[in-house]
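Here is an idea for our session: we take a single protein and study its fold together. To get us started, please write out a protein record for me. Once you have written the record down, we can walk along the chain together.
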Amino acid sequence: MVTIAIENLAVRLGRREVLRGLSATLRPGALVGVIGPNGAGKSTLVRAMLGLVAAERGGVSLDGAPLSRLQPRDLARQVAYLPQGQTLHWPLTVERLVALGRLPHLGPMSRISAADSAAVQEAMARADVTALAARVATELSGGERARAMLARALAVGAPALVVDEPLASLDPGHQIDVMDLLAREAHDGKLVVAVLHDLTMAARYCDRLLLVDNGALVADGSPREVLTAERLRKVYGVTSHVDMTGPLPFVVPLERAPH
């Protein structure tokens, strides 16, 4: 199990302070949604959690160890990452693409083992891409490619999973499938962090939401606590209909809020 602690994190990209004074402790067994308007700093936050961007102040630790003390291979075994909008450059089959998720477990010049192959098959099944195993990944549709990339992240077998906009390019049915999968991974004991734009999906599936606006954490709690109509007006600039009373909560933006 993995716990990620973010302490007073500030990140500057060029002249712009993208994150400022952000703190949160993310523990296993939860699906944590990171939400907020475009440009709020969501993707920078998850990249900082993986040591892909440097902190100007504060920092991130993994089970108490600062990221700077961890070797990249060790970090990759602990936290699998699916970035948004990843481009494929090589005409690999889906099965070979998913097998790349096992690289953190392989030594130099070593070959994939039976256990690695089993992990690949399981990941493809969980992401519903087994039928695509022999297809060339560069020839897939956007939704098929997104699911293949998710399978690659699952194949790592890491105790934590960070996914940035995993619902992009997916039809409604596969959006539900992916959120069901992420929720199962979390409830089976993993820490799962997902950057999301769909607030209804965030309300229905996430155990906890981090609402980021202008680089700061403006709300942290359950969907019921975070997704209020007044807060959405302030952060997103929209009026909305929020219903958390039924078994399937929903959040419907209505129109731009008057200034």
Observations:
- The chain has a mean pLDDT of 93.
- The chain has nine helices and twelve strands.
- The CA atoms of residues 20 and 216 lie 6 Å apart.
- The first strand starts at residue 4 and ends at 13.
